Amino acid sequence: MSDKTYNVLFLCTGNSARSVIAEALMNREGRGRFKAYSAGSMPTGRVNPHTRPIVESLGFAFEDFRSKSWDEFAAPGAPALDFVFTVCDNAAGEVCPVWPGQPITAHWGVPDPAAVQGSEAEIAAAFSDTARMLGNRIRLFLNLPLASLDRMSLQTKLREIGQKADHTSSAQ
Question: What is the pTM of this model?
Fold first, then answer.
């Protein structure tokens, strides 16, 4: 089971910031074990330019990311998903498509850095904060003993990560 590569989809409404950052973080932190994707229920059609420094710091080209519909991942030929995480509250409340692979789902909502108004420094700080919060959740997830957890226990752990990841180290 250790040879399995898990497919992970991060969802947000616009697929322009949070879900893209999570995709990049998971592909960097979980490389070899996980393949991450991102999508949106109502994609904006462009990745927010403030994500550029984050994805580039992780070793990716900004141009490798695009804002796309979650319908791509429910279509025939889409990768079978093992995990689907919503990273914004709006997407969590929407009726999702039926995903191939019967993935385990959880909500890991974080504030939208694209909604922050202010100076360039304030906006950059919001994006950095989002990357930190998502990174915390992803690292907790990557440290779970996936092979030894049954589906229900894993579902519980993933929900706990979404609820507690930003409250000190009590998430584990």
Answer: 0.91
pLDDT tens per residue across span 44-61: 999 999 999 999 999 999
**Among 36, 55, 88, 158, which one carries the catalytic annotation?**
88
Q: Residue 45 phi/psi, 5° resolution?
A: 90, -5
CB atoms near residue 24 (< 10 Å): 26
Domain 6-164 in CATH 3.40.50.2300? The answer is yes
Amino acid at residue number 154 = L
Task: Choose the catalytic residue: 42, 58, 74, 96.
Answer: 96
The structure tokens listed for 2 are 């250790």
Per-residue pLDDT tens over the stretch 85-119: 999 876 555 566 777 778 999 999 999 999 999 99
92 catalytically annotated: no
Residue 16: exposed, middle, or buried by beta-carbon count in 10 A (0-12, 13-18, 19+)? buried
Phi, psi of 10 (to 5 degrees): -105, 130
Kindly list the domain boundaries of the chain, sorted by start residue: 6-164
* Mean residue pLDDT across the chain: 89
83 is catalytic: no
